[in-house]
Amino acid sequence: MVNASGVNCDTRSAGLGTLNPDLSYTVSVSVEFVKTGTITGGNLDPGQTRFGFGVYSSSVGLGTNVDMQNYIGFSGSAAPRAITCSVNYPSTVTLQDARAVDLRPAGATTGTKAFSIGLTCDSVAQVGITFDGAAGTPIQSVSTGVLGASNAGQAGAAMGVGFQLVNAGPTRPFRSRFAMTWEASWRIR
Question: Which residue in 74, 79, 123, 162 has a CA-CA distance of 20 to 30 Å to 36?
Fold first, then answer.
């Protein structure tokens, strides 16, 4: 699909519908609300929420004519509701001691320690969680969710190891949203 407007919006490779034997074309789509910022209550005006459609590279629908008629307007209302949630988590998770011999070669892991992050809300909600390093904590890998020790290299501090969030095997990258349906565990790396 090419991101363009008017007659130059090319969706031929997107497989949006079916050409019927009588040469009519049917497209089935759905519409949903998407949060794009702070939500305030109000109604949608079909004249202000228009979605245009037409035939690629033709004057049908989205041509250069000012009076284009092929639009669908959306109506409805957005009514935010306040939800209060409390989070229950351990402030410190103590890992078992790791031996350097157990961490050979580079990338080897040892010492998985399970812990839970609980969330209780006063209303039904679809919630997710995103993980990232706290201020001052070095991130060794965003894609595999590996943190480093902020005091690495200081006297008596661990060096050459990181800490990784996993769930029954797969690592959890930082800065990605996950549904709150899994139990987290740390693994030393």
Answer: 123
